[in-house]
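Lab notebook, bench 4. We co-purified these components, and the gel suggests they stay together. Before we commit to crystallization screens, I want a quick structural picture of the whole thing.
Request: model the full complex, all chains together.
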Amino acid sequence: MSDGLVSKDLRARNAADISKARTFETHGVSRKAAMEFLRSPEGTIFRQRLIEADPGATASTIVDRAIQQIGSGIELPRMELSADPLVKIVPAGRQVPSFSPFFARKSVFEEVLASGKSLSNYFALPIKSEAPRYDVMVMRPLAPTEIFIHRVAPTSELHGLVNKAGGGEQVLVPNRKLYEPPTYLKSIDDSLALQAERRASLAVKGLGAGAATVLMAVDAYTTAKQYQALSAQGNEFGADALLRHYEGRTAGSLIGGIGAGAA
Amino acid sequence: MTQTIDPAKLKAAAEHLEWVLGRYPDSEEVQGLLRALSPLIGHAKAGMVKEALEERLIPCGRNFADGMYTQYGDPSVDDAYYAFAAELRGGRSPEEEQLIADTQAIIDARNAHE
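Here is the predicted assembly.
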């Protein structure tokens, strides 16, 4: 758990499920709500863009694709005309999938980055898309075009063992042909790993400026000791579950540092 | 409205999906998907899926939202998966059918202009 993301052991034991996001669940808007949106004028434009992106697709696939994309949000999307560049993070060295509709406004993304939030948690990435280091890819519209903005829904994976809060602003791009191909902008670390290691380390060493900090330090220390004990017993599953419970108590702010903090 | 499974339609959809995925033996992406879905396809073919599934519980949906299989269009992996998923949900609702018909009208109008 030194990288602040899902542990290597948990990954290894669930490699097949993770690689295909087999158990990835999105807790977003309902199918019914998504269909209501698709019947609206904005939703009709959304469907038109999907059709233009993949002219050979059947009507049922267009509808199902649209519902799934809209269902990745905790709210229905709002449409804006925009010439803003959009960005997407991919694990370092990987390419942006050709038809992926999931992006963020560059300006918003930079704000998130500056805030130190965990990108993985904020954008509720599937485990397969997690990485300690990401490449930020940017693409620009060929002309001002409609974008569809919503907040990412919470997600769970591996039957609830891994949960992510989401909440990040996401842009849906139903037709990537209206944009230039994505190009490399820069590489970044998942902030959670760096922040959490530093914060948990401080907490476990007893640094406390107030009751809340002390309580958090005690919780972190106790959890760290339990984690060490379970790991020593070879109970990696239990250790991972312990960390997930801890993450729930601390709103996902510290998980990355437990292993390091206990040292 | 609670939807109910039609075993015959689900079986047919499962068999079609399995056949479509088998048309791409050289694609690790598609074969990985087949491996991931095989248990559920097997259950569907055997008539062992008795209750409709919530959409979020149908495996691998994220990959389709992310357009991972859009390039596999002949035969269409997306079409076959979505048809299977629809049967797993207990079939399409009248509202869904209407939306699909409306979308087909948009496609037809677009094609008529080209």
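Chain B has one domain: 7-112. Worth comparing against the SEC data before the next meeting. Residues 94-112 of chain B form the longest helix (19 residues).
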